[in-house]
C-alpha cells in the first residue's frame, strides 16, 4: 500500500507508538470522530458587524462571490450498493489476475513491458499493480543503457522517458539526440510519426532546468502537432484528432490523472487494435472509483451542510465540490478515502480563513483572528466579534476532531504540521491584508516572501496526515527544512493565480498582488509582466520535476503527493479563476462529466 507516515512538531514522542499526548488544551477536548458534526457552540448568530465604527465598516474589502453551483445535489444521489460490490468483485476476481499475467509474461521483453505499463497508466489502472511495476522498472533501469542502444523508435524512447520519470527514475534525455540532424535540430521527417510526436510532446513536459533539449522537443512537437489539426491524415481519424487536441490543450503533467484517464479510455475504445480485457478493466475501474468518490462527496456535503458556514459567513466561497475534486489529484486511489476527507475539510477551512482576511474582515478583525490562531486557545476568543469566533472555532474544532481520530494510530504529530501550516497561512494573510488596506504596493520580492506562504505547501502537509508506511522522522525533517520542491510548488500556484486574478483584484482596490508589484517595480506593461511571471512559473515546474527525481531524503510516495499538488493548477487557473467563478469556465463541465456520467460498459 502506498501510504506513508509523517511526524511533525512535538519532541520525545516514541516513533510508531500511540500516545495520549494531545495537541489541544485538555479542557477543550470532546469525544469527537471524523464525522465532524458541529457542536451547539457553533450555532452563533450570522455575520453582523456591530463592533466596528463607520470608517472601519467602509474599509471592508467586499468581494461578493457567486453562490455554490451544486448546493445539496450530491446528497440526493442514490448509490446502488449491489452495483458497487459487483464492480469490486469483477475487478478483483476476473480482471486483475488476467492483466497481472499479461504484465509478468516471460514472452514480453523489457520494452514491451514498459509500453504495457504506459498503457496501464493512461487507462488509470496501473495502481493495481504497484509491486509488479516497481519490479519490472527496477530491472529495466539497471539495463537502461542496453535498452536505449537497441531502440530507435521515437514513440518507444519517449514512452520510456515518461514512464521512468513519472515513477521516479531519472532517465537521461540525451537519448533524444539520435533524432536530431547534422544541424542540431530535430529531424523534420519525424513529423510524419504522429504517435511518436504525441508521446515526445508529453515527455518533453518532464524536463528539468538544465535540459534544453526538452524545451526544444516541446517547441518542435507543439508546432507540428498544431499544424496537423484539420490535416487530412488526422481528419480521417476523428478520435486521433480529438486525442491530439486534448493533449495540446493540457499535457498529462499539467492535468489530473483521473481526467487524463477518462479522456484516454474514450480514445482507446476507438483504437482498432485495442485489447478488450484492458478496455473493460479500465471502464469497470472508472465506474467503481466514481461510485467511491460520490459516496465520499455525499459525506462531505453532509458535513459542510451541518457546519453551516455558508449561511453563517455568507461572504465566503462555498466550494466543497470544487475543493473535493481538487483533492483527487493528490491521491485518486480508492484506498486513500480518509486522506481525501481530511484534505477537503482542511482546504475548505483554509478557504474560509482566506476569504475572511481578504474579502470581508477589517484590519482590526483580521488581526484579532490571526492572534487567536497563534495562541491556539478557545478561551481567548470570547471578546472577539461573533463571526471571528465562528471562523476560529470551526478550524480549531475540526483539527481537534482529526487529531482525536488519528491519535490512536500514532498520528498526532502529523496533525501538528497542519496546525502549524494554518498558523503560517494566517500570518501571511495578515501581512498581505495590511498592505491591501493601506493601498501599499511592495516590491515584487517583498510580496513573494509572504505570498509564497499562502500557496500549496500546506496542502502537501495536509496530505501527509494519513500516510503511514514511510518514516515519520524523515518526512518531518525534510518538510521543516523548507525544501526547494515546496518553494517551487508555492511559486507555480502563486504566480499563476496572481496572473489570472489581476483584473478582479485591482477592481476591488487590492493592489498588493504579484503582477501589479512586478509592473510597478520594473516599469513594464501588463503583457510584459505576464510573460516574465509565466517564465518563472515554467521554471518552477522544472524545479519540481528535478526535486522529484533527485530527492532522497524522503521516499517516493511522499514526493508523489507533492508532485501531484501542482497538477490541477493549470485546470483551475489558466483561462480564469475557475475556483472562485466555476460557472464561467470548463471546471463545471469537467466535474459534471466525471461525477454525473458513468462510462457505458
Can you characterise this structure?
The chain has 601 residues and is mainly α. The protein has helices spanning 54-58, 81-104, 110-123, 130-142, 144-149, 154-166, 194-204, 212-228, 232-235, 238-249, 257-269, 276-307, 309-312, 320-327, 337-359, 363-375, 386-406, 412-437, 444-451, 457-464, 472-480, 484-500, 502-507, 514-522, 526-550, 556-565, 569-573, 587-596. The protein is 61% helix and 0% strand. The model is unreliable at 1-52 (pLDDT under 50). InterPro entries: Terpene_cyclase-like_1_C, Terpene_cyclase_plant_C1, Terpene_synth_N, Terpene_synthase-like, Terpene_synthase_metal-bd.
Beta strand count: 0
Straight-line distance between termini = 28 Å
Q: What does the average pLDDT come to?
A: 88
Helix share of residues?
55-70%
The number of helical elements comes to 28
Label the structural class.
mainly alpha
Radius of gyration: 25 Å
SSE pattern: HHHHHHHHHHHHHHHHHHHHHHHHHHHH
Strand coverage percent: under 5%
* Regions with little confidence, pLDDT below 50 for 5+ residues: 1-52
Tell me the major beta sheet.
Answer: none
Envelope shape? globular
Amino acid at each position: 500500500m502506498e501510504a506513508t507516515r509523517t511526524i511533525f512538531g512535538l519532541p520525545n514522542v516514541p516513533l510508531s507508538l500511540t500516545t495520549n499526548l494531545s495537541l489541544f488544551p485538555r479542557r477543550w477536548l470532546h469525544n469527537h470522530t471524523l464525522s465532524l458534526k458541529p457542536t451547539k457552540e457553533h450555532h452563533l448568530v450570522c455575520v453582523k458587524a456591530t463592533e466596528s465604527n463607520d470608517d472601519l465598516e467602509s474599509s471592508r474589502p467586499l468581494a461578493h462571490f457567486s453562490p455554490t453551483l451544486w448546493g445539496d445535489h450530491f446528497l440526493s444521489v442514490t448509490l446502488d450498493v449491489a452495483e458497487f460490490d459487483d464492480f469490486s468483485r469483477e475487478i478483483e476476481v476476473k480482471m486483475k489476475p488476467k492483466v497481472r499475467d499479461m504484465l509478468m509474461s516471460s514472452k514480453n521483453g523489457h520494452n514491451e513491458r514498459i509500453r504495457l505499463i504506459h498503457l496501464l497508466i493512461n487507462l488509470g489502472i496501473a495502481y493495481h499493480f504497484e509491486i509488479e511495476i516497481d519490479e519490472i522498472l527496477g530491472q529495466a533501469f539497471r539495463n537502461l543503457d542496453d535498452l536505449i542502444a537497441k531502440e530507435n523508435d521515437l514513440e518507444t524512447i519517449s514512452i520510456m522517458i515518461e514512464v521512468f520519470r513519472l515513477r521516479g527514475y531519472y532517465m537521461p534525455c540525451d537519448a533524444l539526440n539520435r533524432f536530431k540532424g547534422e544541424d542540431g535540430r530535430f529531424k523534420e521527417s519525424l513529423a510524419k510519426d504522429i504517435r511518436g510526436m504525441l508521446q515526445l510532446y508529453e515527455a518533453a513536459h518532464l524536463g528539468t532546468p538544465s535540459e534544453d533539449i526538452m524545451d526544444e522537443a516541446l517547441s518542435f512537437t507543439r508546432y507540428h502537432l498544431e499544424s496537423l489539426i484539420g490535416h487530412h491524415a488526422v481528419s480521417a481519424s476523428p478520435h486521433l484528432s480529438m486525442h491530439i487536441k486534448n493533449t495540446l490543450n493540457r499535457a498529462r503533467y499539467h492535468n489530473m490523472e483521473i481526467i487524463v484517464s477518462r479522456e484516454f479510455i474514450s480514445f482507446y475504445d476507438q483504437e482498432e487494435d485495442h485489447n478488450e480485457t484492458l478496455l473493460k478493466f479500465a471502464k469497470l475501474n472508472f465506474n467503481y472509483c466514481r461510485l467511491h468518490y460520490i459516496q465520499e462527496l455525499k459525506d462531505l456535503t453532509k458535513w459542510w451542510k451541518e457546519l453551516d458556514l455558508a449561511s453563517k459567513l455568507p461572504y465566503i466561497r462555498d466550494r466543497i465540490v470544487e475543493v473535493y475534486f481538487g483533492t483527487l489529484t493528490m491521491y485518486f486511489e480508492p484506498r486513500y478515502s480518509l486522506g481525501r476527507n481530511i484534505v477537503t475539510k482542511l482546504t475548505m477551512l483554509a478557504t474560509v480563513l482566506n476569504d475572511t482576511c481578504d474579502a470581508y474582515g477589517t484590519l482590526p478583525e483580521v488581526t484579532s483572528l490571526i492572534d487567536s490562531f497563534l495562541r491556539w486557545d478557545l478561551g481567548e476568543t470570547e471578546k472577539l466579534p461573533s463571526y471571528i469566533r465562528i471562523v476560529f472555532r470551526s478550524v480549531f474544532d475540526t483539527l481537534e476532531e482529526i487529531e482525536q481520530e488519528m491519535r490512536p494510530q500514532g498520528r498526532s504529530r502529523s496533525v501538528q504540521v497542519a496546525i502549524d501550516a494554518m498558523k503560517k497561512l494566517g500570518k501571511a494573510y495578515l501581512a498581505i491584508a495590511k498592505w491591501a488596506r493601506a493601498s501599499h504596493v511592495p516590491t515584487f520580492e517583498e510580496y513573494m516572501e509572504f505570498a509564497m506562504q499562502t500557496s500549496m505547501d500546506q496542502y502537501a502537509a495536509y496530505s501527509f496526515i494519513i500516510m503511514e508506511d514511510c518514516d515519520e522522522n524523515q518526512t518531518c525533517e525534510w518538510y521543516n527544512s523548507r525544501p526547494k520542491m515546496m518553494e517551487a510548488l508555492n511559486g507555480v500556484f502563486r504566480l499563476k493565480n496572481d496572473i489570472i486574478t489581476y483584473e478582479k483584484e485591482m477592481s476591488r482596490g487590492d493592489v498588493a498582488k504579484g503582477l501589479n508589484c512586478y509592473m510597478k517595480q520594473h516599469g513594464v506593461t501588463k503583457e510584459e509582466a505576464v510573460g516574465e511571471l509565466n517564465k518563472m512559473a515554467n521554471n518552477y515546474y522544472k524545479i519540481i520535476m528535478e526535486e522529484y527525481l533527485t530527492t532522497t531524503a524522503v521516499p517516493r510516495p511522499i514526493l508523489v503527493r507533492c508532485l501531484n499538488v501542482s497538477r490541477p493548477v493549470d485546470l483551475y487557473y489558466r483561462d480564469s479563476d475557475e475556483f472562485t467563478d466555476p460557472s464561467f469556465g470548463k471546471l463545471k463541465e469537467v466535474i459534471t462529466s466525471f461525477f454525473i456520467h458513468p462510462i457505458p460498459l
